[in-house]
Write a structure and sequence with these properties.
This protein is of the alpha/beta class and 486 residues long. The chain folds into 2 domains: 267 residues, Aldehyde Dehydrogenase, Chain A, domain 1 (3-Layer(aba) Sandwich), CATH 3.40.605.10; 186 residues, Aldehyde Dehydrogenase, Chain A, domain 2. It has 16 helices and 25 strands. The strands form 7 sheets. The chain has a 7-stranded mixed β-sheet, sandwiched between helices. Strands 10-9-8-11-12-24 form a 6-stranded mixed β-sheet, with helices on both faces. The protein has a 3-stranded mixed β-sheet with strand order 1-5-4, with helices on one face. Helix 4 packs parallel to helix 5. It is globular and about 75 Å long. 53% of the residues are buried. The structure holds nicotinamide-adenine-dinucleotide.
Amino acid sequence: MGASTSDTFQSSFDLIIGGEHRSSSSGSTIDLIEPATGEFLTSVSQADTEDMDAALSFATQEFERGTWRRTSATERGRVLLRVANLLRERSEAFAVAETRGAGHPIGNSRWEVNAAADVFEYFAGAANKHYGDVIPVQDAGLDVATREPVGVSALIVPWNFPLLIATWKVAPALACGNPIILKPASLTPVTALMLGDVLLEAGVPPHAVNVVPGPGRSVGQQLISDPRVNKISFTGETVTGVGILQSSAPNFARVSLELGGKSACIVFDDADLERAIAATPLSVFDNTGQDCCARSRFLVQRGVYDEFVAGFVEESRKLVVGDPLSEDTQLGPMVSSAQRQVSLDYLDIADTEGATRALSGEASGPGWYLSPSVLTDVRNDMRVSQEEIFGPVAAIIPFDTEDEAIEMANDSRYGLSGSVWTGNLGRSIRVTRAVRTGVISVNSARSVRTEAPFGGFKASGIGRALGMAAMDDYTEVKNIFFSEEV
Ligand code: NAD
C-alpha cells in the first residue's frame, strides 16, 4: 500500500482555552499516528482536569457576562458566515489535515470541508429565524414563549468524522448564543483545533471558544459531570451515551445523543437493480465502513437476491483501496490498528456463525488498510447482523415479503438510518413509515442533509442535529405573560 506524501504538518498543537492557545498544565501530550503509514504525525497537548476546569470557568463567565448571547442574532449570523468563508478559503489545509489525521480519502475530505462550510452557512441564516410564539391564553394580556440560549454547551465528538460532526454541534450552539467547550476524540483532534482558530478569527468572543482534547474517561467524564454544564451534545458509542445520561442526570443538563447504528438497506424485486447495485456498496463501505449510517445489513428480496449479490460483490471488489492522499482512492485506511482488529474479529465471528465470505476483506500495510468484505448465508439474529461493526463488512440477508422485510429491519436495538430501493410508490410510503429509524431514503444511498433533521430512534440516540430542529436543542423555552392590568 502506498505511503502518504511527506507534506509538512504542523509539529505540535496546543489546547484552546478561553480563546487562548495553551499547553496542558501537566505538560502531557498525545502523539498522533498517521493511519496511512502507522508513523508519528504530530503531537497535541492533552488536557488534564485543571485545564478542563479552566475551560469550564471561562465558558461559565462568558455565559454569565452574556457577551455572545446579547450579541444580536443577526450579528451572530454574520460571524458564522465569516466562519464558513474562512473554511472555504482554507479548505485544502483542512482537507489534508483530515486525510492525514483520520485517513479519509482526499476527495472525501474536500467534500467534508465543503459540507462543514455549508453547515455554518445554514446556521448563520438560522440565527435570526428561530423565534417563539405569541399564545392566545385565556387571561387578559399578552403571552409570549421565547427561546433563550441553553448555556454552557459541552460538545463531544468521535473520530470518524472529526471536523464535520464538530460543526453539526458548534454551529447551532453558537447560532443560539451559547459558549462552547468542544472535546474532540483523542485519535483525531487536529481539525477541531483548526476550527477553534477559525471561530476566533471570525469574531466569536474568546471565552466562548474552548477546544480541549483529552481522554474521554478522565476529562470527558469531568466535563459531562460538571454542574456548570447546561447542555451536552455527544456523538459516539451507545454504551458511552448511556454512561453520559447517568452521569449528567443529577445536574439536569439537557442531553442530545447521536449513537450507533445497524441500518438496513432494503432492496425489493421491483427496484432499478442496476442503480441499486451501483450506489449501495458505498452506502456501507464509504469511510471504510466507519460511519454510523453505514447500511451494514442488506435485506434483499429473494427473486433478485442472487443477481444483487453478484453485482454487489463485483462493484465492491472494484472500489479502490489505497493511499488516502491519492486522488483515485475511494477507501483509505481505518483510523487505528485496534479499530481494524474489531472488524477482523467480526469476520471470524461470522465464520463461526456459519456465514459465507462472498468477498473476503484483506488487511494490508503499512498503515491500517482493510478491503471490503461481503457476507452471505447470514440470518438477522446473528451477531454480525445485530452488532455495530464500524468497519468495511456488509451482511446480505434474503426475504420474501414486504412484511418480513419490515420486521427484520425493525428487529434491531438501533434505529438510525436506512434505505429502501423500490419502483413502487405505495410500497416506498408503507415501508418508510413502518421502519423505526430517524432517517430513511428511498432510491438513495445518502443519509445526511444539512437542512433536514438528523438523529436516531431507539438505542441510536436522543435529539436531532441539523435543520431547524438543532436550534431547538440549543435553546430553552421561556414563557412570559404581560398582564393588561397595570
Ligand atoms: P466513543 O464513544 O468511544 O467516543 C466518542 C467521544 O466521547 C470521544 O471524544 C471520547 O473521548 C469521548 N468519551 C469517551 N468516554 C467518555 C465519557 N465517559 N465521558 C465523556 N466523554 C467520553 O466513540 P468513538 O469510538 O469515538 O466513535 C464511534 C461511535 O460513534 C460509533 O458507535 C458510531 O456509530 C458513533 N457515531 C454516531 C453518529 C451519529 O450521528 N449517530 C455519528 C458518528 C459516529
